[in-house]
Amino acid sequence: MKVNIGDISESELDLVMSAIRMSVLEEDKGRGVLVTCVNGMRTWQMNSDDTWITIPGDHHSFEGSFQIPGRLILSANTLNSAGGTCNLTVDHDSAKITSSNGGEIQMGVCKKTPEFKTFSDEPNVTAKIQYRDFQRICSVLAEMPIDIEDFMSFFSQPPLGQVIIDKTSITLRRSWSYVGCPDTVVKLPAQTNGTGSFSLSHLLLDNLMNRLFINSDPELTISFNSEIGQHLQIQCDQFSINFDRRLSGAEIYFPQMIEYLEEKKISHLVHDNGLIAAKYKDVNVRIQLFDGTEPVIRATSTVLHNVTQNVKLLREINRLNTTRVGVRVWCDNNMIVVGAELRCEHSKDMTGLLDGLVKEAQHLGGLLGPMFGGNAPAKAA
C-alpha cells in the first residue's frame, strides 16, 4: 500500500536532519527515524541511549507508522540544497523522496517499526526561558576548568551536570571536585513553578542545544518530576527532547544496594523517595543513601516506642554513645533509635552493617526498656 507522508518544507527537513546527525541510529540493528501522524501532524521521533527527540512537522494526515533510514533524510537534504520542498512516500518496503527540483531518492524501510514513545512523568518543577539564552548557558557548562595538569583525569567520571530550578531562576551546575576544581555554575532568571534538581549528561545537553537547526528564538519549557521522574523534558513548538535521568552522588550506589538485598534474599520494599524498608533477622530496618564528601548508607532501627523524653534518658543515651564506635543512639518523636553508617563504596556487602545494627537494637531494647519504659517494636512480619 502506498502512503503519502506529505510535502516536507525546507525548515522542517533541516531540523529533522540536524536531529539525525546527533542521534546514534544503528541502522545495522534496524534503527531509523520513526515518522507517524499525531493529532493530524506529521511527527518524527529518534533516540540515542540517553535522549528522545520528537519533532512535530506540518499538518498532514496519514495512516500508519514507518521507520525510515536516517541516510534517506540526510540525502534528501543534500538533494534539496537549493531550497524548496520534497515529498516523502512509502510503498510497501521502500520509501521515496521526490524533490521539488525533480530529483528522486529511494531506499528500503526498516522491517520492524517501534511504537511511538510517550512520557508519563507528571512534572512538579517547570521553568520557561528563551532558547538562545538557554543555548548560551549550556555552552558555558561544557567548558573545561583551567590549570589541570592531567587532562585525562577529566574522563575518569561520566560527564554529569545538574539542572536546578528555584523560585526565580534556572541554574546549570557541573561538578569538578573529583579533579580538585570548583564547580562550574551558570544561572539565569526564569519564570518558574516549583523547585528541584535533575541530573543528566551535560555534554548531550550542550550538543543538542547548540546543533539543532533552529532559526528563531522560541520560548522553552523545561520540566521534570524532582522526586520520582526519570526524564527531563525540554519543549517548544518546534521540538521536544526528553533526557534520561543520570544517577549522581549516592544514587549511583542504589542499584548495587538493591542487588545485595535481592542476592541475600532479604525481604524489602522501596518507597518512591528511595527509602528502603527491610526485614533483617526479624527486625525492621530502614536503609537510606545520603550525599556528602563521601556518600554513605545509613541503616536505622527503632529500639523502643512511646518513650518519655527526659534529662535522665538523654544523659544515658549520651553515655552509651561515648562507648560505641560507628553506631549512634538518639531520641526521635518519642522513640529511641539506633543507627549505623557505611561508606557507599562498600554497598555490595552490607552484612556487617546490618548484623551490628540488629545486635545493638536487640541489646539496647533489653537494657533501656526496664529503665525508661516504652514498648518494644513488633517483630518484622
Would you write up a description of this structure?
With 381 residues, the chain is α+β, with helices and mostly antiparallel strands. The chain has three domains: 107 residues, DNA Polymerase III, subunit A, domain 2 (DNA Polymerase III, Chain A, domain 2, Roll); 122 residues, Roll (DNA Polymerase III, Chain A, domain 2); 122 residues, Yope Regulator, Chain: A, CATH 3.30.1460.10. It has seven helices and 23 strands. Helix 1 packs across helix 2. The termini are far apart.
Helix/strand layout:
Elements: E1 2-8, H1 10-22, E2 33-38, E3 41-47, E4 51-59, E5 66-68, H2 70-79, E6 86-91, E7 94-99, E8 104-108, E9 125-130, H3 131-141, E10 160-165, E11 169-174, E12 184-189, E13 191-193, E14 196-201, H4 202-211, E15 219-224, E16 231-235, E17 240-244, H5 254-263, E18 268-270, E19 276-280, E20 283-290, E21 296-304, H6 311-322, E22 327-331, E23 336-343, H7 351-372
Antiparallel strand pairs: 1-6, 2-3, 2-5, 3-4, 4-17, 6-7, 7-8, 9-13, 9-15, 10-11, 10-14, 11-12, 15-16, 16-17, 18-19, 19-20, 20-21, 21-23, 22-23
